[in-house]
């Protein structure tokens, strides 16, 4: 499996607290079938793409020395704000520094007013935005159809493993299932922050994903699609489906 959203870099954000925790996260991943992990620290915590790549390289050396057979990939989770509009292409974090795909996130409570402007800025630099965990955004929980608009704008969608496992509550789990069954998800990742509560739980989610969308599609979400993204050439094969909110009838 390939995990494209983790906070595995030590001491840079609210993820791994130290090197020992990073190594623990790696060992857990290996034991459960994870072969590649993208280090995607919050870009506002370490807003220097060159420094992020350097730290990922350093952690890879630590993994190699410890005999942890995981390939680390440099990336970042970019919070959508106007500062992104000021970045040149070479300063925008993309997976593996390939210049093709960037992971972005919106505020949880209210999608940014300039979201489409930032999306467009990335796209004119030939970068496809991947929106992190939209199933957790209040606006999406209220209306999953919002995701369809982002997909139509050319974005890809990353869902958190914890969401489909119910770790963020029943409403987020319900929203996740709606998105999955309506082809609104392109990859699932752990968004791991440590070695205990929010760990590299992609393998745990895989079992639940197979129940919702079947084994073939579950495998696409946790292995095939992420691999295509790392190779810089992913093209969705299924059209997203419109979601109509169920009407509720009240009887007096």
Please tag this protein with its features:
TIM Barrel, 3-stranded parallel β-sheet, alpha/beta, 252 residues
Helix content estimate: 25-40%
Question: What's the total number of strands?
Answer: 8
Oligomer class: single chain
Distance between the termini: 52 Å
Average pLDDT, rounded to a whole number, is: 94
What would you say this structure looks like, in words?
By secondary structure, the chain is α/β, with parallel strands linked by helices. It has one domain (2-230): TIM Barrel (Alpha-Beta Barrel), CATH 3.20.20.140. Helices cover 38% and strands 13% of the residues. The chain contains 9 helices and 8 strands. It has helices spanning 19-31, 49-65, 115-124, 138-142, 145-152, 161-164, 170-181, 202-213, 215-230; strands spanning 2-6, 36-39, 71-74, 77-79, 101-105, 128-132, 156-160, 187-189. It has a 5-stranded parallel sheet with strand order 4-5-6-7-8. Strands 1-2-3 form a 3-stranded parallel sheet. The protein is globular. The chain starts with a strand and ends in a 22-residue tail after the last helix. The model has no long low-confidence stretch (mean pLDDT 94).
Q: Quick summary of this structure?
A:
This protein has 252 residues and is α/β, with parallel strands linked by helices. Helices cover 38% and strands 13% of the residues.
List the helices and strands and how they pair.
Layout: E1 2-6, H1 19-31, E2 36-39, H2 49-65, E3 71-74, E4 77-79, E5 101-105, H3 115-124, E6 128-132, H4 138-142, H5 145-152, E7 156-160, H6 161-164, H7 170-181, E8 187-189, H8 202-213, H9 215-230
Parallel strand pairs: 1-2, 2-3, 4-5, 5-6, 6-7, 7-8
Helix pairs in contact: 8-9
């Amino acid at each position: 499996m390939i995990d494209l959203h983790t906070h595995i870099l030590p001491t840079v954000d609210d993820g791994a607290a130290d090197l020992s925790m990073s190594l623990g996260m790696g060992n857990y991943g290996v034991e459960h079938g994870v072969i590649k992990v993208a280090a995607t620290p919050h870009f506002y915590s370490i807003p220097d793409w060159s420094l992020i790549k350097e730290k990922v390289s350093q952690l890879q050396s630590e993994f190699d020395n410890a005999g942890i057979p995981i390939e680390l990939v440099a990336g970042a989770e970019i919070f959508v704000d106007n500062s992104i509009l000021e970045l040149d292409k070479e300063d925008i974090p993309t997976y593996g520094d390939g210049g093709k795909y960037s992971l972005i996130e919106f505020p949880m409570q209210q999608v940014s007013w300039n979201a489409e402007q930032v999306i467009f800025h990335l796209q004119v630099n030939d970068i496809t935005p991947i929106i992190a965990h939209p199933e957790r955004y209040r606006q999406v929980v209220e209306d999953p159809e919002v995701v369809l608009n982002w997909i139509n704008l050319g974005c890809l969608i990353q869902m958190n493993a914890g969401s489909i496992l119910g770790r963020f509550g029943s409403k987020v789990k319900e929203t996740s299932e709606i998105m999955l069954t309506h082809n609104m998800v392109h990859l699932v990742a752990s968004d791991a922050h440590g070695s205990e509560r929010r760990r590299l739980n992609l393998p745990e989610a895989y079992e639940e994903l197979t129940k919702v969308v079947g084994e073939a599609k579950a495998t696409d979400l946790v292995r095939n699609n992420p691999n295509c993204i790392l190779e810089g050439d992913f093209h969705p094969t299924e059209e997203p489906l419109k979601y109509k909110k169920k009407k509720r009838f009240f009887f007096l």
